[in-house]
Amino acid sequence: MAEKGRISVNTENIFPIIKKFLYSDHDIFLRELVANAIDATQKLQKLASMGEFNGELGELYVQVDIDKEAKTISISDRGIGMTEEEVKKYINQVAFSGATEFVEKFKDQDTSSIIGKFGLGFYSAFMVSKEVEIFTKSYQEGAQAVKWSCDGSTEFEIENTEKENRGTTIVLHVNEDSEEFLEEATISGILNRYARFMPVEIRFGTEKITEGEGDDSKEIEQPKVINNTDPLWTKDPKELKDEDYLNFYKDLYPMSEEPMFWIHLNVDYPFNLTGILYFPKVKNDITLHKDKIQLYSRQVFITDNVEDIVPEFLRLMHGVIDSPDIPLNVSRSYLQSDAQVKKISNYITRKVADKLNELFRDNREDYEKKWESIGLFAKYGMMTDDKFFDKGKKFLLLEDIDGKKYTLDEYKSLISENQVDKNDNYTFIYTTDEGLQHSYIEGAKRKGYNILKMDSMIDSHFIQNVEHKLEQIQMKRVDADIADKLVEKDEETKHELTEDEQTKLVELYKKALGNENLELKVEALSAEESPVTIVKPEFMRRMQEMAEMQGGGGMFGMGMMPGSQNIILNGNNALIARILKEENEAEAHKLARHTYDLALLSQNMLKGSDLTNFINRSLELV
Ligand SMILES: Nc1ncnc2c1ncn2[C@@H]1O[C@H](COP(=O)(O)OP(=O)(O)OP(=O)(O)O)[C@@H](O)[C@H]1O
Cα–Cα distance between 426 and 399 in angstroms, integer? Predict the structure, then answer.
């Protein structure tokens, strides 16, 4: 029979493990200790508000000090403090049992983010200290102050001590490897990062201010408060003006351009979340804007890596999210499967979609002006989130080459006359480069087609996505086919050439161009269309682009994939007819070559010696 048992972990090993695991992020010891001090202060405030503490509250703040000579850092609060029993219970037992669990669970993982989860918060002090002392006096009447000390082994000492004020002071005797933490700038930096918006005043160092006016003014030194205890997101949106939001933004991102607009998040059911998300003006370089959202838990800064809480596409936004309900201190894979996190992520997505919809509805003109930036969010969102896609269909705008913007529905009705093919598909014709695709655009315009501009970085992906998700829409780049064939209709232009003549023409071109493998086709186009056109069929071109994106072009190298370029000969063009009738073979080949070069030229594909030859031949013909 199998035997069941428990893996026992010896607490002797804990400190080395904590130190080893957490070495990458030593800074957080200060966050943990200051957060504890703030908790203790808020608990006292709570007791007072419930009438369970009737003593003098006094000035409530957390004081951080460094003493370079004694090599100590201390964190003091005037919160609830602890009795001897409480020290034994909360510091000794909880931490040690928590630490045991910690060691068992995460022996083999990268655990730099899981510290607080198991009540190791306080123990993070040992990452930077060779000895830690706690001086504490409970808020309860007549409480005896106690001193606890520990040198990082599992032995601790606890004794009675004298302490004037209620509350707790933690003294860290900084170890040799951590002396950087005795620098004012280092501590300032850490406090600025983690404690900037903590809810109880934190004092560190002093600052000089001028008091009074004119001759009476004097300089005085006063404690420096490093935090803003009630940041904007904790306030009632109804009381805030645009200016407040813009100022707060400047505060958070001093170097950034003004944002376009923002959303104030505020829910308390089924989870707790507040925050402000800003939409920056984004241009093409998405990566520059990523990872600017800061995540807080009850005003304690946790991280600016919100990968798993905020849907990918919304990571372009800036701002803060504060939620005590996000399990911050657990591993990433856990976060991804956490139902709460999913709900939060869905909530944010919905809010953003609603905001865009509202902007669109309330002020279309302004919305259109901001479309360049908004479009990135909208398209990115529609690609990555199906629910967002459904909402986005209403506020997505398509822009044509004349700069006119349409919703999907508006666009469909615009092209319903002329650009619906024989299978009832709406054909959206787009250009990625107006300069390069100019001759094709002209051709399509002659047919009365509308041409969309799809030239942003995200568009090529977006196109595939839209097609896939929307029925009866097909996207074709303007050079995917000759203008006559872009929208496939039943009607056919009559061929002037017989089958034999067509075969002869193809052979003639192959010979003239000296390449048997060219994909040549004779089509009956209108007489005024060019004699030769090179097209890049939509499907093959996308394959090629994909292959290139995946590096090198796969089995085809950087070259052209077969079938990714077709040469269309216009059987109804007068010049083609003349080439076919030309009895002098050399002359026929010369003309064939020339018409082909013209097609290349219109696409900016005529290069090197081919170009030189073309110029010489042109001069000769002139
Ligand atoms: N400054 C303090 N004043 C009063 N009690 C404190 C103070 N610091 C710590 N404690 C007590 O010690 C306990 C353990 O602290 P520790 O930081 O290890 O874990 P935690 O704060 O409970 O959890 P976490 O840090 O994971 O949020 C606290 O819950 C609290 O009861």
Answer: 16
Question: Is residue 588 a part of any domain in this protein?
Answer: yes
Highest mean pLDDT pick, 244-258, 485-499, 593-607: 244-258
What would the pLDDT profile of 29-79 be if each residue is shown by its tens digit? 999 899 999 999 999 999 999 999 988 999 999 999 999 999 999 999 999
Give the tokens for residue 441: 């655009």
Ligand 1 contacts CB of residue 119 (under 6 A): yes
Nearest to 569 by CA among 522, 530, 518, 610: 522
Ligand 1 and 90: CB distance under 6 A: yes
Residue carrying the six token digits 């005896």: 144
Does the Cβ of 116 fall within 6 Å of ligand 1?
yes
The pTM score is: 0.76
Six-digit token string for 459: 């568009």
pLDDT band at 119, cuts 50/70/90? very low
Q: Looking at the structure, do residues 10 and 50 belong to the same domain, yes or no?
A: yes
pLDDT at 250 over 80: yes
The total number of structural domains in the chain stands at 4
Domain range enclosing 437? 397-486
Smallest CA separation from ligand 1 atom 30, residue: 90
Q: What is this model's ipTM?
A: 0.97
* Dist. CA 331–CA 116, nearest whole Å: 12
Q: Are strands 318-322 and 292-297 parallel, antiparallel or unpaired?
A: parallel
* Ligand 1 contacts CB of residue 28 (under 6 A): no
CB 72 within 8 A of CB 171: yes
- The reply to whether ligand 1 has any atom less than 6 angstroms from the CB of 82 is yes
Residue-level pLDDT at 79: 96
Answer yes or no: is pLDDT of 335 > 70. Answer: no
Q: Which residues pair with 182 in a beta bridge?
A: none
Same-domain status, 503 and 476: no
Which atom of ligand 1 is least distant from the CA of 116?
Answer: 26
Cβ–ligand 1 contact at 94 (below 6 Å) = yes
Q: In a 10 Å sphere around its CB, with 0-12 CB exposed, 13-18 middle and 19+ buried, how is residue 256 labelled?
A: middle
SS3 186: helix
Residue 197 maps to a domain: yes
The residue nearest atom 25 of ligand 1, judged by CA position, is 121
Give the tokens for residue 213. 């006016």
Q: Residue 431's domain is classified under what CATH number? A: 3.40.50.11260
Q: Tell me, in angstroms, the distance from the centre of ligand 1 to residue 139's CA.
A: 16
